[in-house]
Write a structure and sequence with these properties.
about 130 residues, two-stranded antiparallel ribbon, elongated
């Protein structure tokens, strides 16, 4: 896109006085950097994505409160992780991490395994163990 066409639509970036760096072509045909305050299409997609994430976080919290899943599921969603990502952070096989989603298995985890999860979520082991979703 041309430097003069860099979008300056109202977005959440603008609300926080943040600008996004974009590449554009100047009058000489050279690539240059330009600042954008937002792009309507991108804003719509980002808001829909955040809404989906917030929905999944709320659902995970409710499932923890009802005793259907362990707190690991909630913190995984809060930290915008998926199973492969969390598995990599805690250096455990995916099937083991998925097994730890079960409350009865979670309660039996050793402190060293809980510490791996706490480190991945940047919380204390006590916060992880005591989260009830309520």
């Amino acid at each position: 896109m041309k430097e003069s066409e860099v979008p300056q639509d109202k977005s959440s970036l603008q609300e926080n006085d943040i600008r996004e760096l974009c590449y554009a072509v100047n009058e000489k045909g050279e690539y240059v950097t330009a600042l954008s305050s937002g792009w309507e299409t991108k804003t719509i997609v980002q808001e829909a994505t955040l809404e989906g994430i917030n929905t999944r976080v709320q659902e995970a919290k409710e499932q923890v409160a009802r005793g259907l899943v362990s707190p690991i599921v909630y913190f995984m969603e809060v930290n915008r992780m998926d199973l492969p990502t969390l598995s990599a952070y805690v250096s455990l096989w995916r099937w083991r991490v998925k097994r730890h989603f079960k409350p009865e298995i979670f309660k039996k985890l050793s402190t060293s395994v809980l510490q791996k999860y706490a480190n991945a979520f940047d919380i204390s082991v006590e916060e992880l163990k005591s989260f009830s979703g309520k």
